[in-house]
């Protein structure tokens, strides 16, 4: 059974993003990263429900989402998969990294014709 998503704390997320390397601040610990990734993924899954694209942020989270009305995948892993590390997800979420820059620098691995998540990022503080 999926976990109930934790609400996204926008101020905590922006503070966490500021502490990511190469920041002079102490780096966030693993528990902070895990909580932020799960909150971000939960928020994305709530805003874009469906089963077209699997967003993976190992080892912390994986969610299936849908963008628009391009049909749904019925069983197993969708043919559209996006994978990134936790720092990349956080930077995309707060807008300090763009989707195009993340792809160009190979911080994001995206496969499948519907794996473009540019419309998802950055997240906005709407909750």
Could you walk me through the main structural features you see in this protein, from its secondary elements to its overall organization?
The chain starts with 9 loop residues before the first helix and ends in a 16-residue tail after the last strand. The protein is built from 4 helices and 4 strands, in the order H-H-E-E-E-H-H-E. The protein has helices at 10-18, 30-47, 86-94, 99-104, and strands at 49-57, 61-65, 80-84, 108-111. It has a single domain (10-111), classed as Nonspecific Lipid-transfer Protein, Chain A. The longest helix has 18 residues, at 30-47. The protein has a 4-stranded mixed β-sheet with strand order 2-1-3-4. The protein has 127 residues and is of the alpha+beta class. 33% of the residues lie in helices and 18% in strands. The chain is globular. The mean pLDDT is 87.
Q: Judging from the principal axes of the Cα atoms, what is the shape? A: globular
Helix content: 25-40%
Instruction: Give the low-pLDDT segments.
Output: none
State the end-to-end distance: 24 Å
CATH class: Alpha Beta
Order of helices and strands: HHEEEHHE
Rg, nearest Å: 14 Å
- Estimated share of beta-strand residues: 15-25%
Coarse structural class: alpha+beta
Count of DSSP-assigned helices: 4
Largest sheet: 4 strands, mixed
Strand order of the largest sheet: 2-1-3-4
As for the number of domains, it is: 1
What would the CATH topology be?
Answer: Nonspecific Lipid-transfer Protein, Chain A
CATH architecture: 2-Layer Sandwich
How many strands in all? 4
Return the average pLDDT rounded to an integer: 87
């Amino acid at each position: 059974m999926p976990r109930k998503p934790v609400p996204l704390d926008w101020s905590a997320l922006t503070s966490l993003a500021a502490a990511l390397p190469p920041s002079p601040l102490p780096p966030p610990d693993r528990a902070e990263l895990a909580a932020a990734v799960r909150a971000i993924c939960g928020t994305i899954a709530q805003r874009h429900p469906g089963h077209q694209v699997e967003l993976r942020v190992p080892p912390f989270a994986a969610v299936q989402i849908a963008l628009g009305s391009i049909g749904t995948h019925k069983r197993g892993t969708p043919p559209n998969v996006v994978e990134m590390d936790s720092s990349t997800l956080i930077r995309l979420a707060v807008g300090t990294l763009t989707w195009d820059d993340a792809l160009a620098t190979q911080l994001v691995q995206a496969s499948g014709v519907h794996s473009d998540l540019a419309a998802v990022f950055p997240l906005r503080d709407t909750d």
